[in-house]
């Protein structure tokens, strides 16, 4: 029979227990059975069972001792809790009493109850100090419940604010271990937010006070570095200010997820303003001064690299007056400026200026008060106009104009179109920055009109100089064509001595002029863009046609010479097709038809003059071309126009 505790459950009968043990043992029954009675076997069974009972007794005894120990420990803990609760209640009771006494004492006259009032005040401050000490200890132990109880009691005491201050100070201990105060602050607020809600009755006030404390103390550690560069390194100062302000506003955005009261956005904005106000007030002055110096340095560095001493434009000197007259007329007032093909326009310089301005616009957007943003952005734009448009592009145009040779110069190198090309490319970048970065900052303010007007003035000033330069460049091109014709075209080209031994082809002068014109057309296409290409090529084509028209009228033509003139004009017309301008091609078609008057039989003159290209021309013009024929008088051709 297994020995277990269940065998001794109440009611227990020892005789019955022994009888059952003997009965279950083989040979142990007293009334016989299947086996004969065996006293030795029964004795062995009793001894064995006694040993089992001893072991069971020891096991049960150990369990009893364990339970008794546990019971004593729990009783002790319970007693401590009861004592704590009693002590806590005595604190609450004492606090309630002293609070009421303190309020009553305020109404008592000082002269009669000075001693009483002093004792009450002393007890009030002692109790208040004890409560704060208890709260501090509970916070260090992490006992949220006890902190909540003490905070609730202190709520009616003057020292409640001090309790909050203690909490704010202690919760920051060990929180700032990294080099990133912003990340540490975000992590701290995230960690204590729930705890504040559990401990304090007005958690939004405590969180707001914590954040204010952090802004006014922890974030201030970043400012000595900022102050250190304020006078010594303006660029680094502006970069540091922008970075610090950006990270602070980003932190404020994260903090809006916490309960900081009904107007947390205004609260955080005021905090940021309070710590940055002295820096933001002087920001735009620092920005303008930095950009002014930086832009001047970039420009000077470029001209130094070209070993170029910048000329004073608009100085009012006699030389300046002569230069401006020469630029705007074709009067020979001395030699042009030799720039050796240098345009004095630098893509690298432009990129540097635009990059500096882009950073300035970014800082301006971030650091300016919304009411001052358009005005500040406009002032930055004016500096860009001064450095890029006036000091660089306009100066290069002035130099380019000075370098354009007079129209009668021989073998002149025309670099002004290269200036035009680079100036257009630069202005596209300027216009892109205007639209992409300046417009969003001023689009809803009155400054928009001022910016647009300033941009219009800059464009118009540039266009005047570009148009002047292009016009004078075209004059030079025509002058070069005129020089080729004057040196290469012989009078005998159109009145050959032996008309029976002439190869019908265009003349050398025509060939050289067409080659020169083709090169200039290609140059114009590379230098211009959009409608400007057609505009300039139209003007060049018209002048080209006028030159050839006037040139042909300087000669008299035999029958074979007229055929050669037609060949020349056909080649000029083929060259004119490269212009891809219908008007220019039409002019040369008409000129080609006019040249037919040099070779047509006298009886067919009227028929030819009534042709498609000539019917609308002035008869005097037709007559003038017919007069160029060597047989004009002998064949009495004038009668056809009388």
From TrEMBL:
Record keyword Transport present: yes
Keywords: Coiled coil, Exocytosis, Transport
GO biological process, one term: exocytosis
Domain Exocyst complex component Sec10-like alpha-helical bundle, chain residue ranges per copy: 93-640
UniProt xrefs under InterPro entries: Sec10-like, Sec10_HB, Sec10_N
GO cellular component, one term: cytoplasm
Residue ranges crossing the lipid bilayer per the database entry: none
Family the entry assigns: Belongs to the SEC10 family.
Coiled-coil ranges per UniProt: 43-77
Protein name: Exocyst complex component 5
Ranges of residues in domain Exocyst complex component Sec10 N-terminal: 39-90
Source organism superkingdom: Eukaryota
Organism for this UniProt entry: Oryzias latipes
A Pfam family matched in the record: Sec10_N
Keyword Coiled coil attached: yes
